[in-house]
Amino acid sequence: MAALLQLKEVTKAFGSLRVLDALDLEVDKGEIRGLIGPNGAGKTTLFNVIAGALRGDHGVITLDGSEITHFGSANRCRRGLARTFQVPKLFVGMTVLENAEVAALFGNPGHQSRSEAVARARWALNLAGIGELAGAKASVLTTGQRKMLELARAIATGAKLLLLDEVMAGLNPTELQHACDSLRALQTTGFTILMVEHVMQALMSLSHRVSVLFSGKIIMTDVPERVACDPRVIEAYLGKARGVA
Amino acid sequence: MKLKSALIQITIATVLAALVPLVIHSEYALHVAVLALIFAVLAASWNLVSGYGGMFTFGHQAFFGLGAYVSALLAMHLGISTYLSIMIGTVFAMVAGVVICLPVLRLRGAPYIAIATLAFAEIVKLIADNLTSLTHGESGLAGIPPLSPIGAMTFSIADSRPYYYCALVLLAVTMVLVAAVLASPIGLAFGAIRDSQDAAESIGVDVTKYKVLLFMLSSALAGMAGGLFAHYVTVLTPSSILGIDVMVQIIAMALIGGLGTLFGPVVGAIILTVGLELLRSLGDYQLMLYGALLVIIIIVLPRGLSSLPMLIASAATKQPSLRGESWKHPIKQREP
After folding, report:
1. 10 Å Cβ neighbour count for B153?
2. For residue B1, what pLDDT band results from cuts at 50, 70 and 90?
3. How far is CA A221 from CA A19, A37, B137, in A?
4. What number of CA atoms fall less than 13 Å from residue A151's CA on the CB side?
5. Domain-by-domain residue ranges, chain B?
6. Dist CA A102 CA B179 (whole Å)
7. Which of A28, A214, B119, B238 is at a distance of 20 to 30 A from B29, taking alpha carbons?
8. Which residue has the higher pLDDT, B76 or B282?
9. Cross-chain Cβ contact A106/B205 below 8 Å
10. Number of Cβ within a 10 Å radius of residue B111
11. Does residue A22 register a pLDDT over 70?
12. Tally of CB atoms within 10 A around A205
């Protein structure tokens, strides 16, 4: 399968701290890829570097065959890459529909009318399961609804690749189930998803493959079952086993 | 607010305001009304960049002053039509808006934006102060020609009535422009940038482009108001038009009326300009009472006087959620 997103030797340092260290990563078209790693492994930095919020120091990033290394966030989005934030950053002065409408209007490079953008925004809200909240103010949403609005906004941009940063954190069991259903529906619609998630049960059941980030490198990429019991992953999370008397 | 209802409200307000000179015959009262209308344009232009764009600039008086001085000097020295000179002054203010916008683009925190823009305005004031060969500094630039005649309508400092209609047209055009921009996709981009710049960028909004556009529009409107002001008062001094107290007045007008609302700054400009005149009889106590009233209004109505009808309506229908919404301060709602 062809790679939609490709990172080659991407490095990012903050002062003397190398958060991403010549990292290589490939995400195939149409897959749901999980990204895990212990706290401080560099997951959010990696997301920021892919999304363009931060620029890498070295390395090359390509999306669907075109290099996007030197593009800013807005440009990367118009080329088909949209993200959500760990802490939702909604446009609280707008309604739910308007939040998605902005994304539909500005995320798509092709000219489209306002009514087309509204239709696309409604479609995205329905896919994220919050279609009935279209008229509500974004400021009154619950945590779960906020996360789903972020997802809807990313969908509305018409992106090929969605970067989801802990989109399930803080959801109650019902919301979690809805979120899982939405992501599966998205994948069957043709979206490719790269997700950082701490809700392991959801991540393991949704992901086709899981990549493990540790000390700025991807230490393994495999199907969830094999990743869960790999000694390198267990060591990354829990440290080396010592002999017990 | 939908564009259609905004346009209807602007039309009704303009028609009612056009009747004012028929009722008020006092030249002094009309003079105050002209000033209120010019300041309403200025406050509405600042509201664009701060209330709708979320960038709390503190140097808006510079655009007002640049528009005034450039237009006055061109009309005085080149003898061109005052309307052409106001247009050139407007373009000059707009260019200055782009210049100050460039460093502001790199700043995120409100205090830094405030200081950078204040510094710019102080530079403009210092230049006006010291370029005495052109501006006559604090001695004042006198002899600015009044507006050129339009058909049978002539302008002179002795008659405020024609200026009143001129200022009203400028305000109406400003309001229609602001309402149209806000109802367009550009308005959505402004709102997105105000609420979260990171999120706006992440969904494809070209933040630089829209911030520059916002500054251009806002500074051009301020410059145009300045041009009209210059040809109305016919005397300019740097402290009267470029001083920090002009900026404080603009902020007070927008806050009192309702920051980030279409009609708020206009309501604020009218109440403050007229209110200050009404309190003039109090002498030394005028500013004390004025200050106390400002503090009370900001505490009691954090979203400004324009939120009052909504508050009364929500109280009458006992809708606690709506009331809660109205009481949230617009600045506090934004991301840190």
Report:
1. 11
2. low
3. 19, 12, 72
4. 30
5. 3-244
6. 18
7. B238
8. B76
9. yes
10. 10
11. yes
12. 12
